[in-house]
Write a structure and sequence with these properties.
Elements (H helix, E strand, L loop, with lengths): L3 H46 L5 H26 L2 H10 L6 H34 L1
Helix pairs in contact: 2-4, 3-4
């Protein structure tokens, strides 16, 4: 026996899920905008306070970050197109279709954390060098 309430509950759940998804997307976009603004503000402050001898180091640092951003966008596109999943099936078999994606993500996050450490180290060294002068 069909109950009319079942359809209403399903529609309510769908609307609630859709609202949660929209809210999550908006929160993520807002967070990314705020992070971008904060990054640009910090970059500007670091460049303003650095002396002429440190400018080439900072340019290299921010250039590296640009390259890593490009790599991230490229990897996102390749992942979303299903390249890694189809390759994973060929390499590991049908039961491990996500294996290569997971390996790639682990390597990608590891490189990201190495880059964060590198950025912090360079900023610390630049700060020390400016205080030593």
């Amino acid at each position: 026996v069909d109950h009319p309430e079942d359809g209403n509950m399903e529609q309510l759940h769908h609307e609630s899920s859709s609202t949660a998804m929209s809210t999550a997307v908006m929160a993520i976009v807002l967070l990314l905008i705020l992070l971008t603004i904060a990054f640009e503000w910090i970059k500007e402050k670091v460049e303003e306070t650095a002396d002429a001898n440190m400018k080439p180091i900072l340019e290299s640092l921010f250039g590296e970050m640009t390259v890593l951003g490009f790599v991230s966008v490229f990897s996102f596109i390749v992942t979303k197109l299903g390249f890694f999943e189809s390759l994973s099936i060929k390499v590991f078999g049908e039961s491990e279709r996500e294996e290569l994606v997971e390996i790639f993500e682990a390597v990608h996050y590891s490189l990201f954390f190495v880059m964060v450490f590198f950025v912090l180290e360079v900023l610390l060294l630049v700060s020390d060098a400016m205080h030593a002068q």
